């Protein structure tokens, strides 16, 4: 098989290019990717990561921030009661905002698809609690077994309990009118 064009050419190494310096400067310029908006706004790009985190009252290394006591390791060490150098926190609002945000209750973002809701409502409306009949229904496109359909209905009940109660209550007068 023939070689691709240009592959026979000898590649020359540039001895005059300082690759270490290029790599180091590119790495220094890249700012750290910060996910938390509170930290991002308080970040000073002219300081190191350790300096920025120390100013905010955050730990750079969690193992150093909360060390394992020597007693747990099996060694007894006497301490003179003095704590190692206390650091001054210049930006305490960052930690306060993060604690406030963490204390807020988490909102439920779980929802079911509109198709699944329509499918469950159709099955309940036409078949009630008869899951075997639901499995034989022509709208059962995915050929769910009676247990699978029951599981889907239970998921709907758990996600929307009020809506389910209202839906079942609205079905009862219709059934009485039919008889």
From TrEMBL:
Its name, as the record gives it, is Nucleolar protein 16
UniProt KW Magnesium keyword: no
Q: Does the keyword Nucleus apply?
A: yes
Q: Per its UniProt entry, which superkingdom is the organism in?
A: Eukaryota
Chief location of this protein? nucleus
Q: Which gene encodes it?
A: Nop16
One of the record's GO cellular component terms: nucleolus
Q: Which GO terms describe its biological process?
A: ribosomal large subunit biogenesis
Q: Give a Pfam family name.
A: Nop16
List keywords of the entry alphabetically: Nucleus
């Amino acid at each position: 098989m023939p070689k691709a064009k240009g592959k026979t050419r000898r590649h020359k190494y540039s001895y005059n290019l300082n690759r270490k310096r290029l790599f180091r400067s590119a790495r220094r310029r890249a700012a750290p990717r910060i996910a938390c908006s509170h930290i991002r706004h308080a970040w000073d790009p002219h300081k190191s990561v350790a300096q920025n985190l120390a100013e905010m009252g955050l730990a750079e290394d969690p193992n150093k921030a909360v060390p394992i006591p020597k007693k747990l390791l099996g060694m007894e060490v006497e301490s003179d009661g003095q704590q190692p150098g206390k650091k001054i926190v210049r930006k305490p609002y960052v930690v306060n905002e993060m604690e406030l945000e963490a204390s807020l209750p988490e909102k439920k973002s779980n929802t079911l698809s509109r198709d699944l809701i329509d499918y469950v409502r159709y099955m309940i409306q036409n078949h009630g609690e008869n899951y075997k009949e639901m499995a034989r229904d022509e709208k059962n496109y995915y050929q769910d077994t009676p247990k699978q359909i029951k599981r889907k209905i239970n998921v709907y009940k758990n996600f929307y309990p009020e809506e389910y109660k209202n839906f079942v209550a609205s079905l009862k007068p219709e059934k009485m009118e039919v008889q």
